[in-house]
Design brief:
- By secondary structure, this protein is α/β, with parallel strands linked by helices.
- The chain has two domains: 2-92, lambda repressor-like DNA-binding domains (434 Repressor (Amino-terminal Domain), Orthogonal Bundle); 95-231, 3-Layer(aba) Sandwich (Udp-n-acetylmuramoylalanyl-d-glutamate--2,6- Diaminopimelate Ligase, Chain: A, domain 1), CATH 3.40.1390.
- It is built from 13 helices and six strands.
- A six-stranded mixed beta sheet has the order 1-3-4-5-6-2.
- The longest helix is centred in the first third of the chain and has 17 residues, at 62-78.
């Protein structure tokens, strides 16, 4: 039953996503499986998995999606079902939902510049990516997320796509959010830091440069106003 719940969510996200390959990669990385691990379970070439994840192949049909999901579940069960057990705790517990202040998938993609304007932001890193697409956002209580959430729970803040803005509130320097992102191995379209940020941490900016993640500082004063501005995007 536990595996069934996570299987349904995984399959639904992949099938409904505009970029199913990236969602396959997201779940594969959450389960700690390499492309070779997955291809071995499916008895296909790892290059096929790579082609789907990169978008070189068209969206896999529902039959293959079901096989991919089942293979990832099998891989986790071989390791003691650690991901399945933790995901079940996530659904039953409250700490994950307490850390997420707002989450949204856009009906149409927005540009990074639209998000920057909405949060009254300034670029710390990555201004050249201003025209890149963003497909959603997650507003996060950074203190609760970093202090209380596990790596799997941190990965789940991405919703249905990693191509989103992660907006960390209650930030003083910005190092912890960037370290948390590095821990998950998943990369968002952009990261927004919401104050009171006095001096942006040099390591945070260096990590953003190395990971090629646009890093923005928001000048909206109140969290409620920040969320209200974001809601106006869709």
């Amino acid at each position: 039953m536990k595996a069934e719940k996570i299987s349904m969510r995984m399959a639904g996200e992949i099938v409904l996503s505009e970029n199913p390959g990236k969602i396959i990669r997201k779940w594969r990385e959450i389960f700690g499986a390499s492309q070779k691990d997955l291809s071995r379970k499916l008895k296909i070439s790892s290059s096929v998995i790579s082609d789907y994840e990169s978008g070189r192949r068209k969206s896999p049909g529902s039959k293959l999606v079901s096989k991919i999901v089942a293979a990832l579940i099998d891989i986790d069960e071989d390791k003691g079902s650690t991901v399945i057990q933790e995901y079940t705790k996530l659904l039953e517990g409250s700490r994950f939902f307490e850390a997420i202040l707002a989450i949204k998938e856009f009906s149409e993609p927005r540009k990074i510049k639209d998000l920057v304007k909405s949060v009254e932001g300034e670029f710390l890193v990555g201004e050249k990516n201003i025209e890149n697409n963003v497909y959603g956002y997650t507003v996060i209580d950074s203190v609760k997320a970093i202090m209380e959430l596990s790596p799997l729970e941190l990965a789940m803040i991405y919703g249905t796509t990693t191509q989103r803005a992660l907006i960390f509130t209650r930030v003083t320097h910005g190092r912890s959010p960037m370290l948390a992102i590095k821990l998950t191995s998943l990369r968002p379209s952009m990261v927004v830091l919401h104050g009171p940020v006095k001096d942006p941490d040099p390591l945070a900016m260096e990590l953003a440069k190395r990971e090629r993640i646009p890093l923005v500082l928001s000048h909206v004063k109140e969290i409620e106003d920040l969320i209200e501005n974001l809601r106006g995007l869709d």
